[in-house]
Amino acid sequence: MRDYVLVCDSTGDLPADIIKELGIKIIPFSYSIKDEPFYYYIDERDDIKGFYDKLRAGDMPVTSQVNPTTYKDFFKEIVEEGKDVLYMCFSSGLSGSYQSARLGVDMLEEKYPDAKVVVVDTLAASVGEGLYMYLAAKKKAEGMDIDELATWIEDNRLNVRHWFMVEDLFHLSRGGRLSAVGAVVGSALKIKPILSVDEEGKLVVKAKTRGTGKALDYIISKVVEEGGDLASLVGVIGHADDMEKAEKIKSMAVEAGMKEENLMITPIGPIIGTHVGAGMAAIAFLME
User: Fold this and answer.
1) Is there a single domain that holds both residue 263 and residue 166?
2) Element of type H or E holding 27
3) What pLDDT, on the 0 to 100 scale, is given for residue 168?
4) How far apart are CA 200 and CA 198, in angstroms?
5) Residue 166, class by beta-carbon neighbours within 10 Å (0-12 exposed, 13-18 middle, 19+ buried)?
């Protein structure tokens, strides 16, 4: 059996040191601010703090979809090393990346017909996608082969729970998740929408709370409701330049029954941050 490499993209949020330790390769997605392009690699090159400072100053970044040729070239480097590829892709419900990746694989297979490049639609984003990175790497280390692992991801992708809140409603409005009027009214009333990901991998507003405290209470209530055996539950907590909020979620989760060592805190990168704004906070876990 040929060795294989785990690949994800930079919409998946997980600490950079853990990604490096697990040996996961990242396809960088891009964004632009005032027509200046940037790439997010999830490593020491990234200036996440600077990105959110620009958002708070009023800059409006936009993201770009990766084209099939970029995927082909990225996978080609791995294939030419004699290894197969398992790519855990950003949700098809939020982007055309999955289709672009499939087209890239088709282009690659014309020249390398013996190569195995498996593309799996995670139906996940941000910390949910990051959770897949972490759990998949653990399964690979335990000896699961590429086909078994691809099947495991597909079998479990509807069991990943994403719960998050946003502070800046105008970014949701820009993305079509909230009307402009709703953003103005909601901001004035300090409304904090609670969002999740549905079975098609699309963002959905699940609740609206008044104030940050109630929003965090709601999120933890869903962890308790859906998490099963909390003592063994692994979770990824993400924050858009708001470590205080992330630490609060962590302490509340531990108080509810999760173990501190099973919780990772990670920054939300610019690709997702473009659409949720500064101050967003999230937790993802796998419901048994």
Assistant:
1) yes
2) strand 25-27
3) 73
4) 5
5) buried
Residue pair 262/232 in contact (Cβ under 8 Å)? The answer is yes
Q: Which of 157, 192, 225 is the last residue of a domain?
A: 157
The length of the chain, given as a count of residues: 288
Last-in-domain residue among 120, 135, 157: 157
pLDDT for residue 205: 84
Task: Check whether 48 has a pLDDT greater than 80.
Answer: yes
Q: Does the reported pTM lie above 0.85?
A: yes
Average pLDDT over the chain reads 92
CB 234: neighbour CB atoms within 10 A? 17
Written as six digits, the tokens of 38 are: 């940037």
**Computed over its alpha carbons, how large is the radius of gyration of the chain?**
19
The 10s digit of each residue's pLDDT in 132-160 is 999 999 999 999 999 999 999 999 999 99
Question: Greater confidence, 181 or 25?
Answer: 25
Helix locations, the chain, DSSP H: 16-22, 48-56, 68-79, 97-111, 126-141, 146-156, 169-174, 180-188, 212-226, 243-256, 270-276
Contact 238, 13 (CB under 8 A): yes
Query: Beta 160-165 vs 281-286: how paired, if at all?
Result: antiparallel
Tokens 């103005």 correspond to 184
Task: Tell me the CATH number at 240.
Answer: 3.30.1180.10
CA–CA dist 108, 193 (Å, integer)? 42
